[in-house]
Specification:
By secondary structure, the protein is an all-alpha fold. It has one domain (about 5-85). It contains 5 helices and no strands. About 25% of the residues are buried.
Length: about 90
């Protein structure tokens, strides 16, 4: 997958995680549903050991109250494509 498509998806997934702040009453329920989904999505989006670790972090970040403000997906994209500079696969 193109790294810019991953960036767009990462921003969208982080925005979905922010829903609990904007919709009073269902925020806590949405975190219960979103936490395992975000962990799974993180592992699918970013492969290997780093993706598994990021998936666990995403799950914990979404499951614990007050940590939803951390843009986990976008930070993982920055780690993967800016700090680590993983080569892009050509198909």
């Amino acid at each position: 997958m193109n790294k810019y498509k991953k960036l767009v998806l990462s921003i969208i997934f982080d925005a979905i995680g922010y829903v609990s702040f904007f919709i009073p009453g269902i925020g806590e329920f949405s975190d219960i549903v979103w936490a395992p989904v975000s962990g799974w999505l993180m592992m699918r989006l970013y492969k290997g050991r780093a993706g598994k670790i990021a998936g666990i972090i995403a799950f914990v970040e979404e499951a614990l109250p007050g940590l939803d403000v951390i843009p986990t997906f976008t930070l993982m994209w920055l780690y993967t494509h800016v700090l680590k500079k993983e080569p892009e696969l050509v198909k």
